[in-house]
Amino acid sequence: MPASRCRQVREMSTQGHSAATTIADRDTWHLAEEDDHGHDHSGGATYIGFWIYLMSDALIFASLFAMFGVVSTSYAGGPAPREIFELPLVALNTALLLASSITFGEAMPHMEAGRVGPTRIWLALTGLLGAAFVCVELYEFSNLIAEGAGPQRSAFLSAFFALVGTHGAHVTVGLIWIVVSLVQMSRHGLSEDMKRRVMCLSMFWHFLDIIWIGVFTFVYLWGVLR
Amino acid sequence: MSASHDPVDPAHHGHGHGHGSRRGYWIGTLLAIVLTVLPFWLVMGNVLRDPQVTAILIVAMALVQIVVHVVSFLHLDTRSEGGWTLLAFLFTVVVVFILIGGSVWIMFHLNTNMMPMSGPSAAMG
After folding, report:
1. What is the spatial distance between Cα B58 and Cα B75, in angstroms, rounded to a whole number?
2. Which of A40, A83, A212, B120 lies most in the core, judged by the most C-beta atoms within 10 Å?
3. pTM value?
């Protein structure tokens, strides 16, 4: 698919090589892209654009991880990770998020085949697992704050809440996106535009699971080992 | 980075963002589950006596699991979008390592070389 797209672009550029800057040429290029967009649901520019967004989001998380790494032992006389982290809860959360990644993976072949029903069921299941993840995380946060281990207690806890909270906020946005997709799918079915949106949503969701690998390893497991 | 190296593959046509095969997806899923369960088991079961060895193992498994997820769930390969997604990904990996590794390294040395402080702020470490 990308190859065919690039070939078209290359053809256009050889055709219009002599007068590449004229407005007419630009029009031709756009027409070609519209046409390309019509017959295979490439949306190539969307995917690479969304990929670049994910990479920039990875940099946001990298700076939060860096901050956490720097202050991860600055307890200020407050609790250490070993005293406050409940690994069974974290294991449950990790399982929920991984399972939601897998159920989203199950939705994709149905979506590509244009089967609206199964796509919606798998997507709804993904949303439920994601919602359970957010609930467990909120429960963990409220427990920590009730124990006096809130974000204001020490630099370590500030960084912890900033990092894990930012991830949780991303998952919440993903949940909203899933609900919107489910509603849109029930109204419009699986048009090419819809497939492109769900494809981006799946990339976003899998990306969040990848960030969580870093969180459960470097924040929770590493913290308890220390 | 050239797009000339694969002719239109009829099997792949219309597959959008180059989905990997179902087999690759299931291998990735199994690996992801194993690589998630193992580090939790190592830490929660206190399997190894030496926490340093455990730490090295869980970090290694996290790095492997990230690669597994990127390949089998995000379908990153050398061909998608003419290789630009791979290039962007590798660039991001480099920046992430410089950002995290550099920050921790510099701040660790600053902390170590800091004059001992007195008063309540000393506990801030």
Report:
1. 24
2. A212
3. 0.80
